[in-house]
Amino acid sequence: MRILITNDDGISAPGLVVAEEIAREIAGPDGEVWVVAPAFEQSGVGHCVSYIRPMRIEPLGERRFAVEGSPADCVLAAVCDILAETPPDLVLSGVNRGHNVAEDTLYSGTIGGAMEGALHGFRSIALSQYFGAPRPDMDLFGAAREHGAKVIRRLVDGAGWSKAGYHVFYNVNFPAVPPGEVLGVRATVQGSRPGPTFGTQPQTSPNGRRYLWLKHGHGNAGAAPGSDARECYEGYVTVTPLSADLTVRDQIAPLAEALG
């Protein structure tokens, strides 16, 4: 199996090391693991692409490249150039430092990388590790490291992978508990948390200029049971099927009637 890895935390991120460990276990001794990741952190860029500027590609070693661009750019660079003649069997995006659940999925570069893979018809999975309030002696990526390969194998071997229209891809989130305390794996819907996702925190710099920092809104405990936000918060690995299709289908008929 040939596996392509990207992320949004950058080529030097510790979660990328975990993703490589997972990918090597899945690919096996005869497989290939390729890393094409952003040269710098790209958190929060969503499915952004560098449409109005070129992106530099820097080879860093065998099957390892840094791209001055977004995670979606990295997937494009991989499947259209680096691996154009030998396309991947699987695209992994992550492991992200922090969860990508509920409204986070709309902002996440990790999700954007997996979405781009799905748009090209490749089986694609986003991987994120929830941190919560970690214990001092806890391996922050322990749950992902221990359970990642098993979950991915289940998806590759048994999950649905649509072949028409917008292809499905999967969003996997690992809970903020040690590996042995993970409660299980659950299929979930994309959640919705009460209140706004982000707010702003103003700050004045030493030279008197005013800046705004973004800060997260409410936590995951208020999300509905069965959602990715709530179940990951409770200690489960969550798996949510997603696609790039944003159509609200049950509103088509009412809309047509309203439009006459």
UniProtKB/TrEMBL annotation:
Positions that bind a divalent metal cation: 8-9, 43, 96
Keyword set, alphabetical order: Cytoplasm, Hydrolase, Metal-binding, Nucleotide-binding
EC number: 3.1.3.5
InterPro entries for the chain: SurE, SurE-like_Pase/nucleotidase, SurE-like_sf
A Pfam cross-reference name: SurE
Domain Survival protein SurE-like phosphatase/nucleotidase as annotated: residue spans: 3-193
Subcellular location: Cytoplasm
Cofactor(s) listed in the protein's UniProt record: a divalent metal cation
SUPFAM superfamilies assigned to the protein according to its UniProt record, in alphabetical order: SurE-like
Signal peptide: none
Family of the protein in this entry: Belongs to the SurE nucleotidase family.
PANTHER family tied to this protein: 5'-NUCLEOTIDASE SURE (PTHR30457), 5'_3'-NUCLEOTIDASE SURE (PTHR30457:SF12)
UniProt cross-references to NCBIfam families, sorted A to Z: PRK00346.1-4, surE
Protein's recorded name: 5'-nucleotidase SurE
Source species: Amaricoccus solimangrovi
Taxon lineage: Bacteria, Pseudomonadati, Pseudomonadota, Alphaproteobacteria, Rhodobacterales
Gene: surE
